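Page 47, continued from p. 46.
Same chain as before, 86 aa.
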Amino acid sequence: MSTSKTTKTRIQKLEISDKMYVYLTSGDVLSLPYTYTEKIAASTKDVLEKYRLIADGIGVHFEEIDEDISLNGIIAYKTTHELLAS
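Result:
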């Protein structure tokens, strides 16, 4: 009988730089433009740095702008936009 445990990938942290970098527990890093949402686009880096991980890392809540983004939404965005760019 196998007792292997499946680990789900979660968001570990964000880095607010020239883009938003989403660090995952899998070791992968996804980049997002600030135009990802209107509220994020209208915010400053200082405001965006005041975030907290929600639901054990499946999402991020930006405190000052009351905006939530999810890992599933980020992946869907990346998939759609990278396929369009190919």
